[in-house]
């Protein structure tokens, strides 16, 4: 019989003890009538066997019977139960981390001595995603985001389609309010509109504006990740920010960008005019005719005709004026 790979995920033990527990457990699993004497006969010291069996029993993996008999609980029952217990404790730890972090940073914000832990510089592009995910997992209410066309933004838009349709969840699995301001350049990405529609199905609301200077993800009013990969593709210099004053400043910048932004479409539109609505929305967001044609799947000539009709309708002399007037009149 092949030896199963890996080790038992037992909390609070060192690697050596974990290896011993795994050895004892596998020996018991692979024998039809396991016992204490059997494990000792396989070369394990008696005191090690006794300690291992006590720990395995405490984890609900075995039951100890009279005379050293070992009753192994079927792994397809015991291991998922053990995993669920770990997941529950992990959720509790993340929730406690959020509350304690607020206490920690509020206490230090009142101190005259700067807290070097309030800003953590990230050393590489690969750190941005995991740090952001960990921060969001501790969120309570909302995630505010603004995104430039950075390497990190490109990586997000290249993610599998189904991942965009998942709602954003925080502490305890609660669904968080997700709002984003995208730089209009993001619309140049291949399939951007398809990704945005998927993210909208996942609960994200978004707007577009020009000249978003960099990217940031802000969770509640307690933490933010600043992404500077647009300036350094290696991602060095990006930061996890827990300084309350800096987080509030980033929220102020987000609010400014949101107020400047234009949505692609408004609620209440019927399916029959959704494509025309999207064309107007892309126009108001500052997209070129070529970009609008590529994202909506219509010809550039059709886009040009629609834009010209809109300009005539609102009395605008330029595409920019047409987009502004369309937004003001509630057409987008």
Explain what the structure shows.
It is a single chain. It is elongated and about 95 Å long. The protein has 332 residues and is α+β, with helices and mostly antiparallel strands. The strands form two sheets. The chain has a seven-stranded mixed β-sheet with strand order 3-9-8-7-4-5-6, with helices on both faces. Strands 1-2 form a two-stranded antiparallel ribbon. It folds into three domains: 15-73, Arc Repressor Mutant, subunit A, CATH 1.10.10; 116-260, Endonuclease Chain A (Endonuclease, Chain A, 2-Layer Sandwich); 271-328, Orthogonal Bundle (Arc Repressor Mutant, subunit A), CATH 1.10.10.10. It has helices at 15-30, 36-41, 46-58, 75-109, 125-137, 151-157, 161-164, 192-201, 244-260, 274-285, 289-296, 300-314, 319-328, and strands spanning 62-64, 70-72, 119-121, 142-147, 177-183, 204-209, 215-219, 223-227, 239-241. 30% of the residues are buried. The chain contains 13 helices and nine strands.
Oligomeric nature of the chains: single chain
> What is the structural class?
alpha+beta
Helix content: 40-55%
CATH architecture of the largest domain: 2-Layer Sandwich
Number of strands: 9
Q: Which topology of the largest domain does CATH recognise?
A: Endonuclease, Chain A
**What's the rounded overall pLDDT mean?**
82
Largest sheet: 7 strands, mixed
CATH secondary-structure class of the largest domain: Alpha Beta
Adjacency order of strands in the biggest sheet: 3-9-8-7-4-5-6
**Count of individual domains:** 3
Straight-line distance between termini:
66 Å
Classify the beta-strand content into a percent band: 5-15%
Radius of gyration: 28 Å
| Count of helical regions | 13
Query: pLDDT under 50 segments (min length 5)?
Result: 266-272
Order of helices and strands: HHHEEHEHEHHEHEEEEHHHHH
- According to CATH, the homologous superfamily of the largest domain is Endonuclease Chain A
Please tell me what the overall shape is: elongated
């Amino acid at each position: 019989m092949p030896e199963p790979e890996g080790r038992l995920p037992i909390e609070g033990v060192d690697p050596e003890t974990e290896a011993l527990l795994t050895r004892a457990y596998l020996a018991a699993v692979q024998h039809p009538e396991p016992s204490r004497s059997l494990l000792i006969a396989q070369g394990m010291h008696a005191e090690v066997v006794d300690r291992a069996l006590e720990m395995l029993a405490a984890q609900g993996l075995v039951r100890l019977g009279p005379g050293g008999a070992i009753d192994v609980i079927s792994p397809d029952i015991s291991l998922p139960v053990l995993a669920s217990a770990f997941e529950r404790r992990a959720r509790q730890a993340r929730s406690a981390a959020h509350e304690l972090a607020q206490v920690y940073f509020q206490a230090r914000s009142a101190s005259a001595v700067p807290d070097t832990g309030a800003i953590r510089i990230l050393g590489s592009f690969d750190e941005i995603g995991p740090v952001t995910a960990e921060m969001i997992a501790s969120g309570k209410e909302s995630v505010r985001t603004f995104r430039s066309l950075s390497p990190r933004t490109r990586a997000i838009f290249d993610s599998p389609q189904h991942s965009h349709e998942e709602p954003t969840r925080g502490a305890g699995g609660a669904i968080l309010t997700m709002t984003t301001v995208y730089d209009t350049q993001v619309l140049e990405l291949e399939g951007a509109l398809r990704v945005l529609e998927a993210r909208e199905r996942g609960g994200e609301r978004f707007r577009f504006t020009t000249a978003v200077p960099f990217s940031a993800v802000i969770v509640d009013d307690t933490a933010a990740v600043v992404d500077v990969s647009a300036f350094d593709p290696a991602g060095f210099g990006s930061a996890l920010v827990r300084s309350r004053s800096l987080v509030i400043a980033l929220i102020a910048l987000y609010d400014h960008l949101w107020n400047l932004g234009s949505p692609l479409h408004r609620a209440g539109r019927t399916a029959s005019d959704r494509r025309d609505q999207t064309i107007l929305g892309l126009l108001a967001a500052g997209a070129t005719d070529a970009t609008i044609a590529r994202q909506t799947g219509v010809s550039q000539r059709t886009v040009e005709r629609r834009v010209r009709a809109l300009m005539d309708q609102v009395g605008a002399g330029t595409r920019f004026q047409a987009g502004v007037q369309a937004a003001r009149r509630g057409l987008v």
